[in-house]
Amino acid sequence: MAALEPELPVQQEVAEAITNQRRAWRRFLKNRLAVAGLVVILLFVAMALLAPVVAPYHPDAANFSVAFQPPSARHLLGTDDLGRDVLSRIIYGAQGSLLSAVLIVALGLIVGVPLGLISGYYGGIVDDVIMRLTDAGLAFPALVLAMALAWVLGPSLFHAVLAIGLVTVPIFARVTRGQVLEVRTRPYVEASRCLGASASRIMFRHILTNAATPIIVIATLNIGTALLSVASLSFLGLGPPPPAPNWGAMLQEGSQYLTNAPWISLFPGAVIFLAVLGFTTLGDGIRDIFDPNH
Hints:
Layout: H1 7-30, H2 32-49, H3 51-54, H4 86-122, H5 124-139, H6 142-153, H7 157-183, H8 187-194, H9 199-207, H10 212-235, H11 247-255, H12 263-290
């Protein structure tokens, strides 16, 4: 019996962790909007992954004989000015739109989080330099700065992702720095420093893991913002060049036919709205998981 005693604390910790996970999951399920947002996002992801299977037509297949056809049994969401199936282009457009939004947030995290960690941990002149650069980036309207960068780099999906991703870096740097300033003075950080742990180990193992909650929430919310920004750049002609299917470009193409064929831009606009709303409500749900008293 004595040999089993040391295992009891470990078993208790595992049981507590499982209990906390169940409580967090129950809090999430109580947020019906967050659950609905998760379902919407999963549907869009499935649509993007299964695009060759579920799309009724090739997205670039033009047929002038059925141009401007309204929604019907043959073309559920109608056709555009070139006779291309709007539903097929929306389905294939989900691939680039969702992937670009995730890559934008990933770029912001990869660059912004380490900058915020270094700034908050070391302080002094390092903090001043990084934060002044961050303030300079935040001083410009995000979309205007992204438009300028995309215009200089040229119209393409990669350049749009790079431009918007660089604009999001100051946001993650600021959020991370604020959390580091709060966590770095806690006893377990001081204990690790006294035990001779390296700065990188303290920053990434002890500080970042305990400051990750707001970063995760901001990242989830920013996916929706990034999706909207990509659509905006594509609408302005700074996204992937035609004939690549893209939700923002479809909005722009249909804007000149709003009177005669409103479905060309109406359905892509509705899809953008649902996707952004899904990520926003999911971010609120994740926030409730980590901060039930919010």
